[in-house]
């Protein structure tokens, strides 16, 4: 379990690594799982802390930010969101971490390409967050891969019961919008009250994330 300071430090490092990868890899790396094999964002789990930003409007009940991040971009947004709301954090972590070769969307034989073709559900190291029943609001974050929510997030939503919870999707993408990915995840979950989500670009500012969160009717 990490403190908020520890989580933000690791997430910031993950984001920095992911952004550095952007300068060396193909454009649109958040639209497809190309480029960096950095999975630090998906390896961080713990609490974001007990206090929200001054002036933040936190939803009633416990708040959880659950996210999967392959290159650090989604981890960065999750860190800003959790810090603003004083939310707990759960990293959706594949049981078998993705490598650089796995994330090469130009290779039809890469792991993610095969998983896409098979509509696979990658096994997770932990499907259900600890004390999941205590949370009234759950933010679910993910990168967009081929215009779709990254597959590990589908495993997560299908494996948890969101009954009685408000669920808010958010994604990162270089060019694609959130599209129908939130609606698809809501359908896969089959439970919970899902509201419209938001798409962020890599390196979204704290103000952008906070403004969006404060504008939600939660």
Automatic annotation (TrEMBL):
The lineage of its organism: Bacteria, Bacillati, Actinomycetota, Coriobacteriia, Coriobacteriales. Residues 63-218 form the Flavodoxin-like domain. InterPro entries: Flavodoxin/NO_synth (IPR008254), Flavoprotein-like_sf (IPR029039), TAT_signal (IPR006311). This is Flavodoxin-like domain-containing protein. It holds the Pfam family Flavodoxin_4. It comes from the Bacteria. GO terms for molecular function: FMN binding.
């Amino acid at each position: 379990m990490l403190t908020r300071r520890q989580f933000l430090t690791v997430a910031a490092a993950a984001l920095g690594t992911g952004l550095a990868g952007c300068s060396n890899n193909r454009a649109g790396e958040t639209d497809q799982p190309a480029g960096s094999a950095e999975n630090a964002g998906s390896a961080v789990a713990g609490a974001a802390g007990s206090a929200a930003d001054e002036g933040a409007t936190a939803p009633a009940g416990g708040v959880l930010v659950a996210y999967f991040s392959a290159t650090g971009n989604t981890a960065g947004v999750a860190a800003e969101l959790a810090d603003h709301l004083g939310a707990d954090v759960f990293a959706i972590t594949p049981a078998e971490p993705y490598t650089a070769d796995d994330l090469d969307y130009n290779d039809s034989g890469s792991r993610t390409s095969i998983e896409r073709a098979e509509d696979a559900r990658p096994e997770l190291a932990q499907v259900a967050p600890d004390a999941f029943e205590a949370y009234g609001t759950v933010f679910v974050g993910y990168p967009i891969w081929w215009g779709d929510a990254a597959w590990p997030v589908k495993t997560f939503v299908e494996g948890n019961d969101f009954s009685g919870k408000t669920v808010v999707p958010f994604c990162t993408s270089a060019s694609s919008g959130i599209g129908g990915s939130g609606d698809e995840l809501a359908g896969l979950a089959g439970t919970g009250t899902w509201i419209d989500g938001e798409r962020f670009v890599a390196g979204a500012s704290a103000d952008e994330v906070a403004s969006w969160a404060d504008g939600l009717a939660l």
